[in-house]
């Protein structure tokens, strides 16, 4: 037996010879699989879909340094939200709400295994799947999870907003007092100096100064709000370890640009009203730069984060934004003070009486502007405090799953059938090759070097052959019968 | 499986391919090349349960059908079966060798013309010694005069020495091999033992061959020169 050739006939012979073995192995495997498939308790899966909105910057400008709203950012955002969704606080709250009546309450890690998040490719959608032992439970847990998650998000946003609202509320009370004081002073001055109304010239000056005054007021309020934000974030961060500052040349660049723009706005406001195209474009540029700064700081945070806690990351990002606003605000404040000083020079040319009037008038106007703005900001903060944050929307609530996802009976049976067939064949061929016996005339020649006087066919197969004419014989018979009829 | 119902297929179903195979086998045996005459033929196998006795019986029937006078001897004293195949009472060789019986009284006719049988008789304590005895030789010589062919059943080669004892006293030995049951080295051992005992091996009968091979006809020339002629 120097070389063994694989002969198709041999193979077919082996298969025929061992067909019982093959059939039995096959049957055992398939039956076992079917039984096991029916014994395994079914697992159900409920699915919900969330939409994660990309915070939009303004229309793409050709001057943009970076493309914003790229799929990469969406991915970052998605992952952040997915992590928040799986965070301990959310999941444990879900366990408390849905698993409390269970005999063995799953812990965080066990529950986490049942939750999977999957961003839908090239879209803002995030699929969330939850598995459970019953269809109802899967549905309930999925919905509870999503609700808890949005609540958590809302809470995060609201805590910040309420901080801002409180702060501005305090400032508003103060500024009201200041306004009353300024108005009283004005009133008093008018009575004391016996001036009913300022001269035309004076009016014009006041008119000119009013814009810068308004800006000054705006600046004061913005600074205050930013400081409120910083203090709120710092409080949230108190339990984390501070000392991480997201920084990159780009962030610095944006911060600088923001400050420059604010100064530019202040200078422009001195000469033009809000409707002036240049003023409008400057304001737009400020908003855009802020958006870019946010995405950049988010990127940096994600890349060099000190912790993997997504909530922490969100807080840090807020802090960076607020700090940038403070920096820009301070720069603007300086610019405004300069312009105000210039205004003073103009004022000094007026007679003393008029000067005094203008001063008290200006104080009153500024106080009023500040008060109005604060009131506006306060209202905004109150609204956003009670508003649902809209950057996460629930697209689909979980429906009750109809069929269990596992065990996949059909697939299992198909696999078992294939495996059974291969195993059966494998065993058949193994036994055939392991069990080397004298079988054929060739074997006798090879092993014994004796002539074969005769080979006696097997009785049993002989009997079978007679009793059970094969498929071919039947077909032949049919064909013959047909042709006979035809004739 | 040795659960074969002993079937005399050559006699009962003369038209069947199996009967045809036996007739071919008969022809091959009759025309086997030997040094001298071929009158006494010993059937044996390497192990038990290879269908030795059934093959022997059918071959004997086939020989008888060709008009030759045939006597079958059951020298498998340990597990005699021939008398069962032909439904005969078991009184035979050992009675002749040990007691004072005469062979002509114990040779029995069978239902096949020209075919007679001498059964083994009761199981003796010392089979191989009996087979090697001069009385046995005498019996053989006597029976040779009574028939054209003596077909002798013997125990398997490897288990006991009986077949080897007989090997040199017969003209030819046929080794029955059950297809797919015997390991090559066992068959080789059987062959070597028989040759060492000065036996003349005529060849092999492959028994219970899977049906696919039945339509192939083989012609054997001297030695192992085999030509296969497909149908």
How would you describe this protein?
The complex is a heterodimer of chains A (487) and B (231). In chain A, a hairpin with a 5-residue loop joins strand 2 and strand 3. Chain A has 15 helices and 5 strands. Chain A starts with 7 loop residues before the first helix and ends with a helix. With 487 residues, chain A is an alpha+beta fold. Chain A has a 4-stranded antiparallel beta sheet with strand order 2-3-1-4. Chain A is rod-shaped, with a radius of gyration of 42 Å. In chain A, helix 4 (88-98) packs across helix 6 (135-193) and helix 9 packs antiparallel against helix 10. Chain B is α/β, with parallel strands linked by helices. Chain B contains 10 helices and 9 strands. Chain B has helices at residues 9-12, 17-30, 52-65, 82-85, 93-98, 103-106, 127-132, 134-146, 162-167, 184-196; strands at residues 40-45, 70-74, 108-109, 115-118, 149-153, 172-178, 201-209, 217-220, 226-229. In chain B, the strands form 2 sheets. Chain B has a 7-stranded mixed beta sheet with strand order 3-4-2-5-1-6-7, with helices on both faces. In chain B, strands 8-9 form a two-stranded antiparallel ribbon. The radius of gyration of chain B is 17 Å and the shape is globular. Chains A and B meet through helix 13, strand 5 and helix 14 of A and helix 2, strand 6, helix 10 and strand 7 of B.
Supply database-style keywords.
heterodimer; A: 487 residues; alpha+beta; four-stranded antiparallel sheet; 7% strand; rod-shaped; B: alpha/beta; seven-stranded mixed sheet; two-stranded antiparallel sheet; 9 strands
Shape of chain B: globular
Task: Please state how the strands of the largest beta sheet of chain A are arranged side by side.
Answer: 2-3-1-4
Number of helices of chain B: 10
Residues in helix, % of chain A: over 70%
Beta fraction of chain B: 15-25%
Largest sheet of chain A: 4 strands, antiparallel
Compute the number of strand runs of chain A. 5
Greatest contact pair? A-B, 28 and 49 residues
> Could you tell me the radius of gyration of chain A in angstroms?
42 Å
Q: Structural class from helices and strands of chain A? A: alpha+beta
Secondary-structure class of chain B: alpha/beta
Instruction: Please work out how many helical segments of chain A DSSP would assign.
Output: 15
Low-confidence stretches of chain A: 56-69, 461-469
* Strands in their spatial order, largest beta sheet of chain B: 3-4-2-5-1-6-7
Major β-sheet annotation of chain B: 7 strands, mixed
**Which shape of chain A, going by the Cα principal axes?**
rod-shaped
Distance between the termini of chain A: 55 Å
């Amino acid at each position: 037996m120097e070389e063994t050739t694989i002969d198709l006939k041999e193979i077919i012979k082996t298969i025929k010879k061992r067909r019982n073995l093959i059939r039995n192995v096959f049957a055992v495997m398939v039956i076992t699989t079917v039984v096991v498939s029916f014994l395994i308790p079914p697992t159900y899966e409920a699915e919900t879909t969330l939409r994660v909105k990309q915070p939009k910057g303004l229309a793409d400008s050709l001057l943009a340094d970076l493309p914003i709203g790229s799929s990469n950012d969406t991915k970052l955002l998605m992952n952040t939200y997915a992590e928040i969704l799986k965070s301990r606080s959310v999941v444990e709250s879900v366990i408390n709400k849905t698993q409390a009546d269970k005999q063995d309450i799953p812990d965080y890690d066990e529950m986490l295994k049942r939750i999977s998040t999957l961003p839908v490719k090239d879209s803002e959608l995030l699929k969330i799947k939850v598995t459970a032992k019953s269809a109802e439970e899967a549905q309930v847990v999925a919905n509870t999870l999503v609700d808890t998650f949005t609540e958590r998000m809302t809470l995060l946003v609201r805590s910040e907003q309420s901080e801002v609202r409180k702060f501005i509320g305090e400032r508003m009370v103060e500024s009201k007092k200041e306004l009353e004081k300024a108005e009283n002073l004005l009133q008093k001055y008018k009575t004391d100096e016996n001036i009913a109304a300022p001269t035309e010239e004076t009016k014009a000056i006041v008119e000119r100064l009013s814009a810068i005054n308004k800006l000054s007021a705006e600046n004061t309020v913005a600074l205050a709000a930013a400081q409120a934000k910083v203090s709120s974030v710092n409080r949230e961060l108190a339990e984390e370890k501070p000392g991480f500052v997201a920084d990159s040349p780009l962030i610095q660049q944006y911060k600088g640009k923001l400050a420059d723009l604010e100064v530019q706005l202040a200078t422009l406001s001195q000469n033009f009203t809000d409707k002036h195209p240049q003023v409008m474009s400057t304001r737009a540029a400020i908003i855009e730069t802020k958006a870019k700064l946010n995405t950049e700081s988010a990127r940096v945070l994600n890349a060099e984060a000190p912790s993997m806690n997504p909530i922490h990351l969100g807080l840090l990002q807020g802090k960076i934004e607020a700090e940038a606003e403070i920096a820009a605000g301070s720069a603007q404040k300086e610019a405004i003070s300069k312009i105000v000083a210039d205004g003073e020079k103009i004022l000094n040319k007026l007679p003393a009486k008029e000067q005094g009037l203008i001063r008290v008038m200006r104080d009153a106007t500024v106080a009023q502007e500040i008060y109005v703005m604060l009131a506006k900001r306060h209202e905004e903060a109150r609204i956003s405090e009670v508003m649902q944050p809209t950057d996460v929307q629930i697209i689909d609530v979980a429906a009750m799953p109809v069929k269990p996802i596992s065990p996949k009976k059909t697939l299992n049976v198909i696999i078992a059938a294939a495996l059974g067939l291969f195993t059966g064949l494998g065993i058949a061929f193994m036994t055939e090759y392991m069990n080397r016996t004298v079988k054929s005339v060739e074997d006798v020649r090879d092993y014994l070097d004796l002539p074969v006087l005769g080979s006696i066919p097997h009785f049993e197969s002989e009997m079978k052959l007679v009793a059970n004419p094969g498929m071919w014989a039947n077909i032949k018979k049919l064909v013959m019968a047909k042709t006979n009829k035809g004739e | 499986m040795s659960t074969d119902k002993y079937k005399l297929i050559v006699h009962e179903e003369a038209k069947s391919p199996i009967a045809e195979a036996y007739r071919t086998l008969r022809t091959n045996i009759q025309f086997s090349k030997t040094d001298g005459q071929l009158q006494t033929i010993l059937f044996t196998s390497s192990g038990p349960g290879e269908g030795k006795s059934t093959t022997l019986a059918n071959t004997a029937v086939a020989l008888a059908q060709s008009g030759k006078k045939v006597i079958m001897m059951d020298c498998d004293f340990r597990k005699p079966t021939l008398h069962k195949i032909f439904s005969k009472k078991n009184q035979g060789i050992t009675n002749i060798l040990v007691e004072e019986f005469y062979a002509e009284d114990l040779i029995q006719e069978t239902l096949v013309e020209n075919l007679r049988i001498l059964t083994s008789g009761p199981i003796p304590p010392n089979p191989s010694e009996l087979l090697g005895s001069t009385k046995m030789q005498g019996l053989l010589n006597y029976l040779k005069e009574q028939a054209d062919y003596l077909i002798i059943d013997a125990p398997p080669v490897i288990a006991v020495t009986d077949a080897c004892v007989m090997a040199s006293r017969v003209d030819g030995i046929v080794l029955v091999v059950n297809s797919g049951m015997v390991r090559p080295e066992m068959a080789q051992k059987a062959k070597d033992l028989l040759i060492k005992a000065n036996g003349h091996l005529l060849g092999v009968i492959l028994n219970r061959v899977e049906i696919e091979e039945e339509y192939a006809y083989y012609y054997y020339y001297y030695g192992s020169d085999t030509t296969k002629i497909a149908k």
